[in-house]
Amino acid sequence: MQDQHGRVIAYLRLSVTSSCPMRCRYCRPATWSASANSSHCQDELSVSEIVDMVTHLATRHGLKKVRLTGGEPTDRADLLEMIQALSAIRPAVSLTMTTNALRLPQMASDLAAAGLNRINISLDSLDRQTFLKMTGVDGLSRVLQGITAAKEAGLMPIKVNTVVIGGLNDGELWPLLDFAAETGVEIRLIELMPMGPLAGDWASQFVSAAQMRERLDPHVAHWRPLTMGSDAARRNRVTLNDGREALIGLIAAMSCPFCGQCDRIRVASDGKLFPCLMDSPSGSVLDALRPQFDADRLEALLENAMSVKPQEHPATGYSVMTQIGG
Question: Which range marks the domain in which residue 310 is found?
């Protein structure tokens, strides 16, 4: 499947729920209503609908990778059933998930047994009070326990995602890199994007990837760039001044857009189809999944999405992260 600019689309980011126990400053508006955020919303894609869609994408279009996002995926009571069904699809797709890790201490081994291949974990601070301030939840210890549980369950490699916000956690870049060296996870430092609750005050809180690297340089003896490919991150293996090594990715969506390598589309939990993270939806896959699966209708929706996928993302975002999953 190719878009109008010749980019091959092989990656689906699938939000399975807009529900999430956290209220991250950059993600979820304070006014987000519980009813609108329910994981039992009647318009939420069912497991069978998700399997029909992914099977079609894998068999017809060579889909290679599915990432389950949210909201928080573990808020879905049928998540393990969903992963089991998706892992049984042939040809097989790489199945990954992004999570806040609050439930990972209890769920990591079950997720691995169900067929999840690996995991990304959101961690915006290693300081308990800053974590609480940024997420609205006093859950840092549970997230750290979740990282340990994911390692023990074999959900490797683990990538830890940190959205860097000026005046909040931008002073923690070195502790986070030190944490990566100690634990063997890959730390990914992400530029704040002008969408969601902080869009109006984005410029005053934006920290560029170049600034992040400049702040880390005093602690790093050597940066060794790794092949980027279609990955959003500019990945480096670094040697620290004390000789330890770590993996770090810098995601510069605003200061150095990587749209030319974009290989993904997004589907929200209510079926909205997003050709681009920051653009408006091009339609809804629900039209092709209910009351029964309609392959021709899905093809038409995908064709339209490919025709309107922009060459570069807009200057500001249309949606909020808790709806589309980042």
Answer: 11-324
